[in-house]
Amino acid sequence: MRPDDAANLAKAIRELFADAETSLIAKVAATLAKGLDDPGWAQLKLASIQGLLVVVDEILAGLATDAPGAIEKALTLAYSGGSASASAGLASAVGYAPVAPNSAISTMVASTVETLPAQMFQIRRAVTDMYQQVITRTTAQVSLGVLTRREASRAALVRLAQNGITSFQDKSGRRWNMASYTEMAVRSGAMNASLQGVVDRLARLEQDLVIVDDAIEECRMCRPFEGKVLSLTGARRAEKLSDGVRVYATLDAARQAGLFHNNCRHAMSIYLPGITKREPAVADPEGNALREQQRAFERRIRELKRRDAIDQELGGPEAAATRAKLRAKQQEFKAWREDNGRKNLSYRTNTTAR
Ligand SMILES: [Zn+2]
What we know:
By secondary structure, the chain is mostly helical. The chain has helices spanning about 5-35, 40-45, 50-85, 90-95, 105-115, 115-145, 150-160, 180-205, 250-255, 285-315, 320-340, 345-350, and strands at about 165-170, 175, 210, 230, 250, 270. The protein has a 4-stranded mixed β-sheet with strand order 5-4-3-6. The chain has a two-stranded antiparallel sheet with strand order 1-2. It starts with a helix and ends with a helix. The relative contact order is 0.15.
């Protein structure tokens, strides 16, 4: 289990939410599109919000049904992965003690799943705000006499939906769209599950020492811990080992100092003095650049999908062009993946199949 695997599992769940997000925006557009030429459109639309919310709630209920199972699967796999990698390569020296997912993993799944209802509430509110704002902005624009109602409502909705549906605002004021936020939450849950897998496995083997691996350059926050030996329980904190290596910190202290933060690319595994080889750092600037490019492709495609959903419902001269842009970008992404040997988005079918 590498951080990339956990990231792919989280991505699959992000796709669930991104699909729901696109459906929600399509429903907003479809509701706005009905009776566009009716002189009483704005009143009619404000009155039909209950009808819209019925559909919104159906979509959210679908998510609420699918997400917990997918989250459980992702975290359980992360846990087993952590457990399997804990003593990989050194199993002959310490033995093999498989650890089945236990109450620790159930607690982690529960604490991630538990955030869903609040998120659903925020999504519902964000959709309502979006819908009402389009009506207000459209009415204002149309009264200026420059745009038709269709043009004005499309422009307003495209603009509001550009970054998706916001379901969360963090302490720094950054607003997260519902899919990215879920991905972040699942990634952090998977990271914790994977570390717990290592901890539990090594506890079974009565081993207290781990070494932090050497990840690629981007993880600056964790640089001081690379190649360092940590004590899981604190029992061997600051001990000078038989091979001359000094135990650097406890796992808890290292985590408090930032190690294994969100989206961290580091992992840890058993350390046996005199047996474990310390691997030198391998920089991977190319892999990092490819990941960045892939993320940029994915972001752009999701944005075009949202716009396409709007244009398909509101019609008009832009609809064909938006669809063509989306298809072209998807083709470009496919060609890019083939060129760079990146896997097809198979994570999509992996986690959601139950
Ligand atoms: Zn890190």
